């Protein structure tokens, strides 16, 4: 997968763009996590919506396997960057971050869905 590696205390993750995420979703081998609050929509295929500041408390809604492929997004990327670092502290090792969030997703011509 193409992307930009980012090192942070506790590990590293990869920033990806909308087209890379689209390709990852086509493989159906990724857990997609929306952490934006308040809810403003989601990318089709999202597995769960957990507010970015509740990731640790709601870890039971995440994959049990710490090497599961997880992609995190929010509206612009700020909340999801916080959530990604929390996932790394929880021991997750294969984490990707949608750079620019669903704003970038829509700018790339992709749609959001609403519950």
Span between N and C termini?
A: 29 Å
Helix/strand order: EEHEEEEHEHE
Number of self-contained structural domains = 1
* Annotated CATH homologous superfamily: Rhodanese-like domain
- Spans with pLDDT under 50 lasting ≥5 residues? none
Which strand order does the major sheet show? 1-2-7-6-3-5
The CATH architecture term is: 3-Layer(aba) Sandwich
Percentage of residues in DSSP E strands = 25-35%
* Total of DSSP H or I helical runs spanning 4+ residues: 3
Oligomeric nature of the chains: single chain
Helix content class: 25-40%
Looking at CATH, which topology would you report? Answer: Oxidized Rhodanese, domain 1
Mean pLDDT value: 95
- CATH class equals Alpha Beta
Number of strands: 8
Shape: globular
Could you say which structural class the secondary elements and strand pairing correspond to? alpha/beta
Biggest beta sheet summary:
6 strands, mixed
Explained architecture:
- With 115 residues, the protein is an alpha/beta fold.
- It has one domain: Rhodanese-like domain (Oxidized Rhodanese, domain 1), CATH 3.40.250.
- The chain is 25% helix and 27% strand.
- It has 3 helices and 8 strands.
- The protein has helices at residues 18-27, 78-89, 101-107, and strands at 4-8, 11-16, 31-34, 42-43, 48-49, 69-73, 94-98, 112-113.
- The strands form 2 sheets. A 6-stranded mixed sheet has the order 1-2-7-6-3-5. A two-stranded antiparallel sheet has the order 4-8.
- The chain is globular, with a radius of gyration of 13 Å.
- It starts with a strand and ends with a strand.
- The model has no long low-confidence stretch (mean pLDDT 95).
């Amino acid at each position: 997968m193409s992307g930009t590696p980012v090192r942070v205390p506790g590990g590293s993750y990869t920033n990806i763009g909308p087209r890379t995420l689209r390709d990852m979703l086509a493989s159906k081998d990724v857990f997609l996590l929306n952490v934006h609050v308040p809810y403003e929509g989601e990318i089709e295929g999202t597995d769960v919506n957990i507010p970015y500041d509740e990731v640790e408390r709601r870890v039971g809604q995440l994959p049990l396997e710490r090497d599961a492929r997880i992609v995190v997004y929010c509206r612009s990327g700020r909340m999801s960057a916080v959530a990604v670092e929390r996932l790394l502290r929880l021991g997750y090792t294969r984490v990707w971050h949608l750079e620019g969030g669903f704003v970038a997703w829509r700018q790339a011509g992709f749609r959001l869905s609403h519950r």
